[in-house]
Each structure stands twice: as structure tokens, then as C-alpha cells.
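Both lines are given unchanged directly below:

***
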Amino acid sequence: MVEIVNLLDDKSGEYYKYLTSAAFLLLQDKECVALGIAEDDVPVGAIVADPGYNGVGEIVSLYIDREKRRNGYGTELVYEAVESLFSWDNMYAVGVTFKDDDETKSGLKSFFEYLEFDIAQDGAHGTYTFSLADIAASDKIKGDIDKRVTGLKDVLASTKNALTSRHGAVQSFMVYGEIDEEVSCIVNAEEKDPSDLSCLFVGKSKDALVIVWAEAAEHSLDLVNMLRYAIVNGLKKYGKNMKIRVPFINETSKKLIEKLVGDKAVPVEYIWSAYLPLEWTLEESV
């Protein structure tokens, strides 16, 4: 017997293993659609979706046990989540984004096409990956670190909290202890509100460092100085072969990365976007 479980009411914690850190944070806030699916009372997967604030809901996390895939469980979870999202006020579409690597491993493009989502590859969003040695060799990165740059490990807790509250991805990495405070940094400016400081948050995944959030409050040179700090301290801690993943979110950030690292800037993966408009109904899609 297959059963759909509302994770907002479930206290067992048995479905947490299927959630990303961002999905887990949404679940704690309760302002989301969170569903699990069980086969004969045994959990086999879960989905979490964010209603958002602009009328477009987002599927944040979807996972089915590998041995239970191709049994319709993912399809059922998406159908149930979409139907729930469309019951929220002013909701006109549901979206999901995923990386090339996710598509290669899980066939997500074909899956969401089957569910009648409109899918396109987003050439303005993606991720570059370099070794620390490659990016350290760039003429644009070489140089002394600005004295105003301070490691996150030396920043007051109140300042740290003000900065992390600006971005959900940083919060989720912080919750799981995956922000490397020896490599992450800020640019100090005493007259500024802590939440307005330039900052660079670097997370640690299984096989690479990841730039989770970067913001240059006043000048792009702040970003260069923070990158210098991160690269120098990353080399000291992890060695030259450690990889670092650098996302680009628009053409401006893409061009800046290419300018900094030159011919080493080869996109590893682009982002796919899929959307389902309000006209979709469960009956029509079955």
C-alpha cells in the first residue's frame, strides 16, 4: 500500500534523510508544502516546495530511493505538491531548477517533460569549477590582501547573524556547519550597518569548496580582495588540488569570472529551468 504523508504533521523524522538542507529549513518554518511517500509503511521518498512570494511556487527538493524509482512515486509526489501549491492564493505557476549533473544522473529533464513542464536551459545561470592552484595563478587574483578583509572566524556573532540572514542558502549551510569560516570573509567598514558589508561565504561539500554567496557592497574590487583571501587561506588549509565551484547568476557575473581567470573559465554545468502554469490540472495530466 502506498501512502502520502504530510511532513508538516509528521513527528517521526524518518523522512529527513530525503531533504536537502534548504528543504529542511523550510520544513522548520512550516510555510511550505512538504510531503513524504511510503510503501507498506516504509518511507521511500519526499518532496518539499516553497510557495514563494511572487506567485511562482518552487520545488526545492525531490528524492526517491534509487531502488524504488520508476514505480510512479516521484510522479505522485509532484502531482500532489503541485495541486497543493495551486490551492495557495495568487499562485499562477510552479517551477523547478536543476543542474546538468542532476540531469545526467537522474534524467530530470525527461521526467519533468513527461509531467508537462516547459523546460529550457538557462545560459545565464551555471557553475564554473577550478582548482585552487588554477585560480591562484590568475594575474587578476595575485597581489596582497586588502587589510580591511577579515576572516569570518574573527567576525562578531551579531555581524555574522546579520549577514547570514540575507540569504537562505547561507543559512542552510550554517545550520549544517558547512560554511568554512577560515576561508569565508568580509570587508570591514566601521561606519556601515553589518548587514550591508561586502561578504564572501564559502561552503564545503564532499569534494570541493563552494561559493555560496558573494556580494560586493560598493565596488567589484571588494570581490577580488575577498577572493584573494579565500584562495590564499583555501590553499593553506586544503592544498592546490582542492576544487572550488563558482556559480554565475547572470551575464555580468559570468563575464567577471571569465575576466578573473581567463581561459581556465570553462562552464562545468548550466542550470535547467522548468515551469508548469496554472492551467495544468491533475485530471488533464494523468
